[in-house]
Write a structure and sequence with these properties.
alpha+beta; 5-stranded mixed beta sheet
């Protein structure tokens, strides 16, 4: 890989920060990235990068070097630029083969052929197949099930007067929802919960635990696909699950291999649950630490309105969204982003969290305003890799937040915000725990617990 030029104190570059001591370069005053302090509040560091080094060559905690893109206009360009490939084969280094980029264990588990690792025309073909499961109509039909899951989970802790909203609510809700959508039998969903729990620890679990969980999930999916293929009816039934639909497509000329079907089911689960865990967790935390906006939303919900809930979830996605950096991209040839030359083979990471706080695009970007209108945030990406499951995630986020604030109206933090810890990891942003207290309440209805645990 061609190593980019590193600025020296004598370089007359635009990266020299205004007001820095004479002779100082941007690197002399650059904030430290990827520390625990940074994880708690990365936004001041991202503001510095946007101003002084908007496209910056950075060594990541894994030891891999990559370009970080932090301004909104540059981020939007990069997300849509097809010269930036999703295929790790274009990386000039062997970092992916060593498990330093992408999802740990996915290569060994033969799960590479999913939407986050491929380009057109294969990406176009696979996305077309699975997009049928995420149409507005299909998601709307799933709304009652999401509400049922939401109420059932709240029922489990409502009478205690306290809970950890990550472990008892934000985590299990999207796991069970995506399992239902995929067609994972109820009796197997706790296994998925355990594997997914290991995946989101990002180094907090035993060494190699993520890769082992990926391997277990791969074996289960292969077996489930085989069983579903054996029992597949000749014609699709109403509300057919997604795995059955993928099998049906592969058996009817859509050229979907069994590995592709398994990889697709895997990435829908992997990408489809953690983003929603973080949306619910980060969103609830933001509301609890902004009591005026939280009260504004509660009054709107009490009046039977939904408009502020809808714009509010979009604002929470912008303000402190679940995905901090977009997934890996690799330059297939020389290109320029934000005035910076990128060499072929260089990895590029778009920092969504920085772009969505860019004052050149958003007025008062550090202000939480649930009624914000012109809010074309990049929380779910942009271009052909825009998050396929965004409609389902929005439904789950809106349902979870509205139900929490309605059923537990005096919900409050049970810990000092400074004591909360954020999960490590490069791509996602989410809390490890979110302890809360509230006045105990009874169940919303006769409990319909189905025997599944929460985490």
């Amino acid at each position: 890989m061609t190593q980019p030029h590193q600025p020296t104190p004598d370089d007359p570059t635009p990266e020299d920060p205004a007001g820095a001591p004479a002779g100082a370069s941007a690197e002399d005053t650059a904030p430290e990235l990827f520390t625990w302090e940074f994880a708690a509040d990365p936004y001041p560091a991202y503001a510095w990068l946007r101003e002084h080094a908007p496209v910056r060559w950075t060594k990541l905690p894994s030891g891999v070097d990559a370009w970080l893109v932090t301004r909104y206009a540059d981020a939007k360009q990069a997300l849509a630029d097809q010269r930036l490939s999703k295929n790790p084969a274009h990386h000039a280094e062997t970092a992916h083969a060593k498990g330093k980029t992408g999802i740990p264990g996915e290569r060994k588990a033969d799960l590479m052929t999913h939407l986050l690792n491929i380009d057109p025309p294969d990406h176009t073909r696979l996305r077309r197949l699975v997009s049928k499961a995420f149409t507005p109509r299909r998601v709307a039909e799933f709304a009652d099930r999401v509400q049922e899951l939401t109420d059932d989970l709240i029922d489990r802790f409502a009478e205690k007067g306290s809970a950890d909203l990550i472990h008892e609510f934000a985590f299990p809700l999207p796991i069970y929802a995506i399992c239902d959508l995929l067609g994972v039998p109820r009796e197997d969903q706790d296994d998925f919960r355990d594997w997914a729990g290991m995946m989101i620890r990002h180094g907090g679990g035993p060494r190699g635990g993520v890769a082992r969980s990926v391997k277990k999930m791969r074996g289960y999916l292969a077996d489930l696909i085989h069983r579903k293929r054996q029992a597949l009816p000749a014609e699709p039934e109403p509300g057919e699950d997604l795995i059955s639909a993928l099998i049906r497509a592969s058996d009817h000329g859509e050229h979907l291999t069994e590995n592709e079907a398994a990889a697709m089911a895997f990435i829908l689960l992997f990408a489809g649950f953690e983003t929603t865990v973080n949306l619910i967790g980060n969103g609830t935390y933001a509301l609890l630490t902004h009591p005026g906006e939280r009260r504004r939303l509660q009054l709107s919900l009490a009046a039977g309105e939904t408009g502020l809930l809808q714009t509010g979830v979009e604002e929470l996605l912008r303000y402190d969204g679940p995905v901090e950096l977009a997934t890996w991209r690799y330059a297939t040839g020389p290109l320029t982003i934000g005035g910076q030359d990128i060499a072929a083979g260089d990895p590029v990471l778009v920092v969504l969290a920085a772009a969505d706080r860019d004052p050149e695009r958003f007025a008062d970007p550090d202000l939480l305003d649930l009624g914000r209108r012109d809010n074309q945030h990049l929380g779910y990406g942009h271009g052909i890799h825009y998050c396929l499951g965004a409609p389902l995630a929005r439904l789950e986020g809106q349902t979870a937040l509205a139900t929490l604030l309605t059923r537990l109206p005096d919900l409050r933090l049970a810990a000092d915000p400074a004591e909360l810890r954020w999960r490590g990891g490069l791509i996602m942003r989410g809390l490890r725990t979110l302890p809360v207290e509230f006045t105990p309440v009874g169940p919303s209805r006769e409990s319909a617990h189905d025997g599944r645990s929460t985490m």
